[in-house]
Design the sequence.
C-alpha cells in the first residue's frame, strides 16, 4: 500500500519525513526547486508498513480569475459581482507534481496547517491528486491533526488521522470569492478614476479590500481625533499630610470633574475642617498575575511594543521558528494549553540555556503552576510555546532570536507563580470627601524573574497611621488640570483594534497593515522611541470620500460589514448556513454599495484632490 | 394641600441665594428638567457618544445587532492614565413653575437618573428631558445652586399633559447636544 502525504510547506514536509522515517528516507527533486519528494516506510495502525511519499505545496496552488471578457478594461467593474469565475492553476509544476505522485498511491494524507486556510489548501491538493488518480475520493482522505513538530506529537498525528472539514473549506471559498469580486470591482473603479484625475500615476494602483479599508479607517479616525483635539480643563481636590517627617499625597476617590463650581462647592465644604480622619487602614496581599498563554495577536502586540518589530516581521520570524521545529504553530487564537500537555518535558528542553535555563531547572525541581486558562479557543492549536531548544546565538536572524527568547520566557512565566506583594491603603475622610493613598511592597517576584518584559516595583511606603486617627491637613488644594491629546495610532494598538473589531484574522492582520502601507495609504512616523502610524493625504481622501457617500445603513470604511462576513463564515464552519446563502447576501450588500460608489466617484476624486492639495 | 400643589406654587430664585454661604429649601418646589449635563466626562468624549447616535454609519444601526459598536480605543500596557470619576455625575438645569432657572448638582448618585433601564432614551442621556422633579424642603443651597440628594428628590417623570414642552426639548436632541458641546468646547479653548 502506498500513501501520498502532502504538507503546506517544504520545511514541514522535510521535518515530518525525518520523524516518520526515523531519518531513513530518500530524496527526489520535483520540477519546483523548493519542493522535494521524500520516500520512506511507515507503520500506520490497521494498515501495517506502507510506502510513503511525502511532498509539499508552497501555499495555494490555485487562484480565482475572470474569463477574458471580464478582464480590466473589457467590462464595467460593476458586472464583476455576477460574472463567471474561473479557477486558475497558479503553480502548475506544484500541481503536476502532486498529480504525478498520486498516480500510484492508494491514499492521500493531508499535512497542511490545521486552520481554515490549511483545510482549503488540503482541498486544492485533493483536486490535484484526483487529476492524477481518479480513484482518490474526498471521503477517503486522511487529514493529520498537528500543531507543532515535536516527534511524539507528529507520530500521534500520523496514527490518528481525521477527515477534511468541508464546512471550513466552503467558508474559505466563500471568503475568497467575496474578497475577489469586491476587491477587483472596487479596485478597478478607484484606480481608473484616480488615474484619470491624475491623483495617482499611471502605473499605480488604488486598491480596495474589505479588510484594508476598515484598517485604514481606524488610522484616519485616530488622526482626525488627534488633529481635532481641544484641551479641556478639569478640577480635582488633592490632599497632602505630613507624618514622621514624610509627605504623603492622598488621591480624591471621585477623580475629577469638568465643572469648576461643582468642585469648588465640595472643596469649600472640606475647608470647614482643619483635620481629616483616617477611616480605614487596610493591608492586604496583592498579586500580579502571570501572563496568559500566548496567542498570535498577543505575540504581535508584544513584539511591536517591546522590540519595535512590525506585526509582519514578528509573524515571519515566528513562522520560521515553527518551520525549523523550535516553536509550536504560531497562528493561533487559543490562550490555553490542553490539560494533557506535558509541561515538564518542555522545561527539560530549556534547562541548558545560560539565560533562562536555571529558571526552567527551578520549575522542574521546585514544582510549577498550571498555566492560567484564557477564554479563547480556536479548537485547532494550543497557545504558542517552545517545542525544541535552540541556542539563540546559533540563530542568524535577529528577529528570530528575540521572538524565540520571548516565546520561551512567556511560556516559563505562564507556568510560574504569580508575583506577590503587600498593599497598604489608607482612607482619609476630609469633610464629606474621601481620599486614599497606597503603598506597595513586592514580596515575591516569582514569574517576573523570568518574564523580563514586565515591571512591578515597590512604591514609597505609607507612614504609620491608625484607624480613627485625626490628622492635620497639611495642604488641601483644589487643582486645575487639562486633558491631553490622544496619541496617534501605534501598530500594537491597531492590531488590538483590528482584533477586537473582527478585521482580519490573527494570521492576516499583519498583511493588511503591510498592504495599506505599500499602497501609500499610511506612513510610519517615528517620534522619540515610538513609531506612530498616520494616514497619507491619499488615505485620508479615500476614507473621507467614502464617508461622504450616502450609503443605506452601511459603511465601507468601518468594520461592521467585514465583521458581518466573518460571523457568517463562522456560521458556515459551524454548519448553520450554506456558502451560497452567505455569498448571495454579502454580494447583494456590496453590489448596492458599488452602485452608489460608482455614481459618486467623481466627488471622491475631488475630495482626494482637495485633501492632497491642503497637505502639500 | 398636596405636596404637588404646594410645590407647583413655590418658586426658587437662584439670585436670592448668591450672597448666602449656605441655606436650605424651606418648601417643596416643582421643577422641570430642561437640560442634563454630564460633568464627569470630557466634552469631546461626550461628543463622540452623541455622534454615534447622529451618524448611522458610525453606529450599530448598521446590519449588525445593536451591541456591536466599534471598539475605538484600547488601553495599552500597564500605564495608569489620569483618573476619571467612578460614576457619571450630572448637572441639571431646572426651571420652576414661575419660569426661574437654576442648576442642581448631584452630590450622591440620584436613583431616578440611573433606574431608567425600563425606558431607554435612545441617547446618552439617562432620562428624557422635560420630566417633573419635586425638590423637597431641606435641600442644601450653596452659591445659588441646589445640591441634590435622593431623600430630597421626588422624580415624577414626564407628565402626559406637557407633550409640547417634552417634544420641544427632545426633538432633534442629538444635534442640539452636539451643538451645545461644540459651543462649550470653543468657549473653553
Sequence:
Amino acid at each position: 500500500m502506498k500513501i501520498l502525504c502532502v504538507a503546506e510547506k517544504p520545511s514541514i514536509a522535510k521535518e515530518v519525513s525525518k520523524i516518520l522515517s526515523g531519518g531513513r528516507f530518500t530524496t527526489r527533486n520535483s520540477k519546483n526547486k523548493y519542493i522535494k519528494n521524500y520516500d520512506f516506510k511507515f507503520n500506520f495502525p490497521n494498515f501495517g508498513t506502507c510506502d510513503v511519499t511525502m511532498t509539499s505545496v508552497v501555499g495555494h496552488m490555485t487562484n480565482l480569475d475572470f474569463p477574458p471578457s471580464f478582464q480590466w478594461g473589457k467590462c464595467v467593474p460593476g458586472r464583476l459581482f455576477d460574472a463567471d469565475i474561473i479557477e486558475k492553476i497558479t503553480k502548475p509544476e506544484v500541481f503536476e507534481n502532486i498529480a504525478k505522485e498520486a498516480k500510484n498511491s492508494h491514499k492521500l494524507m493531508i499535512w497542511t496547517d490545521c486552520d481554515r486556510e490549511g483545510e482549503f489548501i488540503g482541498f486544492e491538493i485533493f483536486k490535484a491528486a484526483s487529476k492524477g488518480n481518479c480513484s482518490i475520493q474526498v471521503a477517503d482522505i486522511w487529514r493529520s491533526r498537528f500543531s507543532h513538530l515535536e516527534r511524539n506529537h507528529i507520530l500521534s498525528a500520523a496514527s490518528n488521522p481525521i477527515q477534511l472539514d468541508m464546512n471550513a473549506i466552503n467558508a474559505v471559498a466563500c471568503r475568497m470569492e467575496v474578497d475577489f469580486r469586491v476587491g477587483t470591482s472596487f479596485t478597478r473603479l478607484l484606480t481608473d478614476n484616480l488615474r484619470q484625475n491624475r491623483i495617482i500615476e499611471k502605473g499605480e494602483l488604488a486598491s480596495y479590500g474589505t479588510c484594508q479599508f476598515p484598517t485604514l479607517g481606524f488610522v484616519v479616525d485616530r488622526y482626525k481625533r488627534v488633529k481635532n483635539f481641544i484641551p479641556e480643563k478639569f478640577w480635582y481636590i488633592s490632599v497632602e499630610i505630613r507624618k514622621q517627617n514624610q509627605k504623603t499625597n492622598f488621591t480624591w476617590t471621585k477623580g475629577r470633574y469638568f465643572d469648576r463650581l461643582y468642585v469648588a462647592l465640595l472643596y469649600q465644604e472640606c475647608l470647614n475642617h482643619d483635620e481629616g480622619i483616617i477611616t480605614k487602614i487596610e493591608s492586604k496581599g496583592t498579586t500580579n498575575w502571570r501572563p496568559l498563554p500566548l496567542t498570535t495577536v498577543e505575540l504581535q502586540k508584544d513584539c511591536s511594543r517591546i522590540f519595535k518589530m512590525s506585526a509582519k516581521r514578528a509573524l515571519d520570524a515566528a513562522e520560521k521558528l515553527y518551520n525549523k521545529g523550535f516553536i509550536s504553530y504560531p497562528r493561533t487564537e487559543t490562550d490555553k494549553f490542553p490539560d494533557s500537555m506535558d509541561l515538564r518535558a518542555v522545561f527539560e528542553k530549556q534547562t541548558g540555556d545560560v539565560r533562562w535555563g536555571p529558571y526552567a531547572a527551578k520549575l522542574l525541581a521546585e514544582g510549577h503552576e498550571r498555566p492560567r486558562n484564557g477564554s479563547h479557543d480556536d479548537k485547532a492549536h494550543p497557545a504558542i510555546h517552545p517545542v525544541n531548544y535552540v541556542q539563540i546565538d546559533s540563530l542568524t536572524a535577529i528577529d528570530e532570536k528575540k521572538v524565540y527568547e520571548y516565546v520561551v520566557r512567556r511560556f516559563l512565566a505562564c507556568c510560574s507563580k504569580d508575583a506577590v506583594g503587600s498593599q497598604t491603603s489608607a482612607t482619609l475622610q476630609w469633610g464629606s470627601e474621601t481620599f486614599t493613598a497606597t503603598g506597595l511592597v513586592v514580596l515575591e517576584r516569582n514569574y517576573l524573574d523570568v518574564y523580563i518584559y514586565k515591571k512591578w516595583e515597590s512604591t514609597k511606603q505609607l507612614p504609620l497611621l491608625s484607624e480613627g486617627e485625626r490628622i492635620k491637613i497639611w495642604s488641601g488644594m483644589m487643582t486645575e488640570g487639562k486633558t491631553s491629546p490622544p496619541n496617534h495610532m501605534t501598530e500594537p494598538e491597531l492590531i488590538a483594534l483590528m482584533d477586537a473589531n473582527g478585521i482580519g484574522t490573527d494570521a492576516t492582520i499583519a498583511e493588511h497593515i503591510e498592504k495599506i502601507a505599500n499602497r501609500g495609504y499610511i506612513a510610519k512616523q517615528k517620534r522619540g522611541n515610538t513609531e506612530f502610524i498616520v494616514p497619507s493625504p491619499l488615505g485620508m481622501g479615500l476614507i473621507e470620500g467614502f464617508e461622504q457617500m450616502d450609503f443605506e445603513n452601511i459603511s465601507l470604511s468601518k468594520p461592521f460589514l467585514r465583521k458581518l462576513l466573518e460571523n457568517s463564515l463562522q456560521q458556515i464552519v459551524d454548519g448553520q448556513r450554506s456558502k451560497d446563502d452567505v455569498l448571495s447576501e454579502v454580494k447583494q450588500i456590496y453590489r448596492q454599495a458599488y452602485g452608489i460608489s460608482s455614481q459618486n466617484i467623481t466627488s471622491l476624486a475631488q475630495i482626494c484632490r482637495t485633501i492632497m492639495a491642503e497637505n502639500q | 394641600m398636596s405636596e404637588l400643589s404646594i410645590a407647583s406654587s413655590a418658586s426658587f430664585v437662584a439670585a436670592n441665594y448668591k450672597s448666602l454661604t449656605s441655606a436650605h429649601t424651606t418648601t417643596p418646589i416643582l421643577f422641570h428638567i430642561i437640560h442634563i449635563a454630564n460633568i464627569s466626562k470630557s466634552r469631546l468624549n461626550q461628543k463622540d457618544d452623541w455622534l454615534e447616535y447622529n451618524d448611522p454609519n458610525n453606529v450599530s444601526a448598521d446590519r449588525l445587532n445593536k451591541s456591536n459598536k466599534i471598539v475605538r480605543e484600547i488601553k495599552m500596557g500597564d500605564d495608569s492614565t489620569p483618573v476619571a470619576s467612578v460614576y457619571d455625575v450630572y448637572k441639571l438645569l431646572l426651571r420652576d413653575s414661575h419660569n426661574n432657572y437654576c442648576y442642581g448638582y448631584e452630590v450622591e448618585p440620584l436613583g431616578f437618573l440611573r433606574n431608567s433601564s425600563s425606558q431607554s432614551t435612545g441617547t446618552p442621556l439617562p432620562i428624557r428631558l422635560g420630566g417633573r422633579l419635586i425638590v423637597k424642603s431641606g435641600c442644601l443651597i450653596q452659591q445659588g445652586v441646589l445640591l441634590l440628594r435622593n431623600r430630597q428628590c421626588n422624580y415624577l417623570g414626564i407628565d402626559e399633559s406637557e407633550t409640547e414642552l417634552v417634544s420641544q426639548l427632545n426633538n432633534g436632541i442629538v444635534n442640539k447636544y452636539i451643538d451645545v458641546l461644540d459651543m462649550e468646547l470653543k468657549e473653553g479653548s
